[in-house]
Design a protein that fits this description.
Blueprint lengths: L2 E7 L4 H10 L5 H4 L14 E8 L4 E9 L5 E8 L8 H15 L4 E7 L2 H9 L2 E12 L11 E5 L4 H11 L5 H9 L4 E7 L2 E11 L2 E9 L8 H15 L4 E7 L5 H6 L3 E11 L3
């Protein structure tokens, strides 16, 4: 079969993005997240797709890679139409990703796939090893209710020093480039959960299709165990309800102690995403 592979940078043209979306139309929405569909056409997005067409102009597979926070660190995944998976097309797409990453002088990469044994064998055949896993969690939006009087949830309004201290204490300094990106990206909303004017927790929210994503969620370590995280997550679910969204999503590493907080806050597990790193000599 004659196939043509090409590399296109984000934002992708409307027709190609439509072909990609059509290829994924029967894939559960939560399985599409690793392919970054919200970034394909976004003006400020950094990334690319490797696309495979037949001679009849039918798109039968693609890989999508995104520089999520502008640090030359790319996360990528790929999808091949089930009827064409015996053609080693996945390997060709992965080779295309490696070529494009080299062209862009990427500093690091991670491949992300829904966890299953077939994918594991494929990634190992490409010379990748497992790095870590994340659990994708979902909760339904909730009708609005009032926070207790002493608490407020307010949009970020320039409290850079307080926000930086909160996140660096909850995580470590590696979170700071992500914070900088969240501050600059217009589609990302930073919110602060306060008591008496003092920030206790923060989250960055992002709307993708019918879902509200909760990212960079942190409760100051000195304030953990007091139910503030549950209150804040409840507020996020209520915000999704106000915006007529269908679900609230977040992901967390399997070893993260916060997993039980999310589950006690009404989030349930959808799937596990495995991240793979290329073996180095």
């Amino acid at each position: 079969m004659d196939l043509s592979l090409s590399i296109v940078s984000f934002p992708i043209d409307e027709q190609t993005a439509s072909d990609m979306a059509q290829l994924l139309e029967h894939l559960p929405s939560e399985n599409r997240t690793v392919l970054h569909p919200s970034l394909w056409r976004a003006d400020e997005s950094r990334g690319f797709a490797v696309i495979a067409y037949t001679a009849e102009d039918e798109l039968i597979g693609f890989a999508a890679a995104a520089d999520m926070v502008g640090l030359h660190h790319y996360e990528w995944s790929l999808f091949v139409h089930p009827d064409y998976r015996r053609l080693s097309l996945g390997t060709a797409l992965a080779d295309g990703v490696a070529h494009a990453l080299a062209q862009r002088q990427a500093e690091s990469e991670l491949a992300a796939f829904v966890n299953n044994s077939d994918i594991a064998a494929f990634m190992e055949s490409l010379g990748f090893r497992p790095d870590f896993k994340e659990i994708l969690l979902s909760a339904e939006p909730l009708p609005s209710s009032s926070l207790p009087e002493e608490f407020q949830v307010v949009p970020y309004a320039g409290e850079a020093e307080e926000l930086t201290e909160l996140l660096a204490t909850a995580f470590d300094d590696s979170i700071l480039p992500i914070l900088e990106h969240n501050m600059e990206a217009p589609e990302r909303e930073i919110w602060l959960f306060k008591k008496g004017g003092q920030p206790l927790a923060t989250a960055t929210l992002l709307t993708e299709e019918d879902a509200l994503w909760v990212t960079a969620f942190a409760v100051h370590p000195d304030q953990q165990g007091k139910g503030y995280g549950k209150l804040f997550l409840k507020w996020c679910r209520e915000l999704a309800f106000k915006r007529n969204l269908e679900k609230v999503l977040l992901d967390v590493e399997t070893e993260n102690d916060a997993l039980h907080v999310y589950e006690k806050s009404g989030f349930h597990r959808l799937q596990t995403i495995s991240y793979w790193k290329r073996e180095t000599a």
